[in-house]
Amino acid sequence: MALTVQQKNGTTELQQALSIELTKVRETINKQSKSKFSGISEIITDIIDLNGKMLRPQMSIVSAHFGEYQSEKSIKLAAAVEMLHMATLIHDDIIDDSKLRRNKESIQSKYGKDMAVYAGDYLLSKVMGMLNNNDYDGEHMQKIAKAIEHICESELLQFHSKFQFMTVKNYLRVVSGKTAALFAVSMYAGAYESKCSERLSNLLGRIGYELGIAFQIIDDILDFSDDQALVGKSTHNDLKKGYYTLPVIYSFQREDASVLQKSEVELLELVKKKKGLEKARALAQKYTNRAYRKIDALPDCDAKLVLSELARQLLDRKY
C-alpha cells in the first residue's frame, strides 16, 4: 500500500521508501542476471554502476503507488524493465562505438564488442524469463515485447537515415521508439499490475510517453555540449556518426544537402548560429508542458507529488 506523505527535511516518506526500493531493484538485477561465466557477471555489475539514475524503475514503482502497491511484484517488474534498458545501452554503445558512458569507460570499450553483444543478449533472455510466468498479465507483457520491437524499428530508421536529412516527423518516430516507448510501458505496466484502472494506467502511460519524448530531445541537445565531463558521455557523437538529430534538422531543413559536407566544427557553429538548439528546446518544452498537464489530471496522492518532482528532475537537467 502507498505511504502517507510527511515532509522531513524536504523529502517525503515515499521518496525515502523509493530509495530503499531502488536498492532492492539493483539487488534483484544482480540476482536475476547471475551467470556461471564470471565475465558476464562482471559486465552486469559494471553496467549497473554506469546507469546510476534508474529512471525507468523509478517511474514504474511510483506509478505502482497509484494502486495497491505490492513491493516484491513491483520490484521484479522494475528490475526487468531496467535490464531491458541496460541491454539497449550496451548495444547502442557498440553501434556508436562510444568510449564513455556516465564518465566511465563503456562496456564495449572496456570488454570488447564481442563480449558486449553477448552481455546484451544475455540480459534480454533473462528479461523474457523473468516476465514469462503467471505473476504478470500476458497482455501487458505483449506491450513490453512491442516496446522492444519499437526500439529496434527506431534504431533501423535512424541507421538508414545516416548522413541524410530527416524530417521532424521521422525524428519523432525514432525518439518515440528509442526512449518514449519504454518510458510509457514502464509506467503503464507498473500501474496496471498494481490494480489501477485501465483509464488511470493509460494516463500514466501517456505521461511516460510525453516525458520520454522531451527527455530524448534534451539528451540530443546535450550532445552539442562542449563539456564532455559534465554530460558524462562522448559529445558530438551523433554528428560524427551522421545521425542528424533535432537541432540539426531545424537548422538545415531548408538547406541543400551539400551543407552536410562541411566539417564538424562548421556544422556545430551553424547549428548555434541558426538557433537549432533553441528551436529544439522549444519542442522539448511543448512535450514537457503536455506531461505536466497530464500529471495535474492525476488523482491527488503521495505518488503524484513524487512523480511531479521526478519529472522536474528529468526535464530540468544539464546531463
Question: Which descriptors apply to this entry?
Answer:
two-stranded antiparallel sheet, single chain, 15 helices, globular, Farnesyl Diphosphate Synthase
Report on the architecture of this protein.
The protein is mostly helical and 319 residues long. The protein has one domain: Farnesyl Diphosphate Synthase (Orthogonal Bundle). It contains 15 helices and two strands. Strands 1-2 form a two-stranded antiparallel ribbon. Strand 1 and strand 2 form a beta hairpin. The protein is globular. The N terminus is likely disordered.
Please give a quick description of this structure:
The chain has 319 residues and is mainly alpha-helical.
Number of strands: 2
In terms of DSSP E residues, the strand content is under 5%
Q: Any idea of the CATH topology?
A: Farnesyl Diphosphate Synthase
Largest sheet: 2 strands, antiparallel
* Average predicted confidence as pLDDT: 88
- End-to-end Cα distance, whole Å, is 34 Å
Fraction of residues in helix: over 70%
Instruction: Assign the CATH class.
Output: Mainly Alpha
Number of structural domains: 1
Report the CATH architecture.
Orthogonal Bundle
* Secondary-structure class: mainly alpha
Strand order in the largest sheet: 1-2
Low-confidence parts: 1-10
Q: Give me the strand/helix succession.
A: HHHHEEHHHHHHHHHHH
What would you call the shape?
A: globular
Number of helices, where a helix is a run of at least 4 consecutive DSSP H or I residues: 15
Rg over C-alpha atoms, rounded to the nearest angstrom: 20 Å
